[in-house]
Amino acid sequence: MSLTDREREIVALLRRDPLIGSAALARELGTTRAAVNVHLSNLGKKGVILGRGYVLSEQQSVVVVGGANMDVKARSRRSIVSATSNPGTSAMSPGGVGRNIAENLARLGTRTHLVAAIGADGLGDQVLAATSGAGVHVEQVRRSARATGTYTAVLDTDGELVVAVADMAATDELSTDHVNAARDLIAAASLVVLDGNLATDTLAFALDLATAAGVRVVLEPVSVPKAAALAHLVAADRPLHAITPNRDELAALTGLPTRTSRQVEKAARALHDRGVALVWVRLGSAGSLLSSADGAVTLDAVPAEVTDVTGAGDAMLAAFCHALLDGAEPAAAAAYGHVAAALTIASPHTVRPDLTDRLIRSTHA
């Protein structure tokens, strides 16, 4: 939803005097107080102002543009035997990389808006209700004629992923028009997070909108095929604040080998040359490498008893963004992210429902 001319006038007056009342606004605009209250209500629904204090939402907010779907997780009771039936359990819960990141951010206390597409079906209703219930602003989640996407994961008895199948048809329909409808939210955001599951033209459009508004962007490449498809978007004329590949995705982004630590650092420097300020390479149980123009630092993974690895990377990225917005240095934000990942791995949930800033900090202490 873009702002109307009258709404833009009201926002300009609020910037000038945040304590102005609706009666004074009406006098300034030559209209009625009732009409002003309607506009203020609409601005609240659009996420531009927060409540009756008329505090502008540009005070630390994140817009996540990405996938939302229903996760189906099946876990074998014993080590997986391929090409046959394996006894186990299964469960469904809302998922999607973008949606998971948004929910984690909201649970940590960051004001978060989600731009996504889901089906106009029962699964979509469940995804929308759960996401909104977690505190995410979902006014920019579109209902598609396509079925709500699903991510079906098969886990071994130890909680490690064996194979997954993603049906993201609804997310594929998230278009530049849909992103353009959220351009005011994006322009007012403190940070924009982009999910590599999006179509490349949609990704490019969202990145360009944020760049034009001077908003920092974090890009999650998601997978090797997705990283290869979006590699051409990572260029000096589209500066990224951060990109968060694993070792193989880094190779796909750069076309360089990434088998050794020295090769990973060299590939990360190649992304700096293409306008990326921070390259945070996930190295699994070996931790991660955070590279900036000042050099690279290695961070250890936080030990955790594995219950379910699904969603750990999403929690890690969300916590990283939350800490950055809270003023943490990048290395400290990355360490905070590692704790969030460990807490999520130890939980049976894709997004840990009790995840809070206090929990992370008490675990990290």
Structural class call reads alpha/beta
- DSSP strand (E) fraction? 15-25%
Note the overall shape: globular
> How far apart are the first and last residues' alpha carbons, in Å?
43 Å
Succession of helices and strands: HHHEEEEEHEHEEEHHHEHEHEHHEEEHHH
Describe the structure.
With 365 residues, this protein is α/β, with parallel strands linked by helices. Helix content is 41%, strand content 23%. It is built from 15 helices and 15 strands. It has helices spanning 5-16, 22-29, 33-45, 97-108, 122-133, 169-172, 176-180, 183-188, 200-212, 224-230, 247-254, 261-272, 312-325, 330-345, 357-364; strands spanning 49-50, 55-56, 61-65, 69-76, 88-95, 111-119, 141-144, 149-155, 161-167, 191-195, 216-220, 240-243, 276-282, 288-292, 295-299. The strands form three sheets. The protein has a nine-stranded mixed beta sheet, sandwiched between helices. It has a four-stranded mixed beta sheet with strand order 5-4-8-9. It is globular and about 70 Å long. The mean pLDDT is 91.
Summed up:
The protein is an alpha/beta fold and 365 residues long. 41% of the residues lie in helices and 23% in strands.
